[in-house]
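Local shape tokens:
==================
===
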Amino acid sequence: MKKFYKLLFIPIFCLVMLSNTTSTVSAANNWAGFQHVTIGLSFKKWGLASFYTTVIPSKSSYYSKINMKLQRYSGGKWHTLTSGTNGDTSINMYSRGYYVTKGYTYRVYSTATVYKSKGGKKINSDTFIYKNKY
């Protein structure tokens, strides 16, 4: 049943996210464990920052873990406003919302790690960054 909801949710999620600002990272064949990664950040009414990271591992049996932060640039440094972690087998979609102040540059800073299985051997890890000004 969980897979059914994932399959139903994916097209809806993609439509919503494609209408916003996104950045797609395509994995090469030698990028072990990853098939596709998408990261995005957009700003809604009243300063709501909507940000997300989606990881599709190269095999549906692989488990991926996303550590995602929303950061603001000020005073010459990046400051973490909020962060969270999500793990899932197969497609891993993690999205959050957080109210921000206008006049700054923000970024989504996500580290994605792919494992053979939940609690299994690590295959690969990489960091993905997307910046947007509000």
User: Anything to note?
Assistant: The chain has one domain: 2-133. The CA atoms of residues 35 and 63 lie 13 Å apart. Strands lie at 22-26, 34-43, 48-57, 63-74, 77-89, 92-99, 105-115, 122-133.
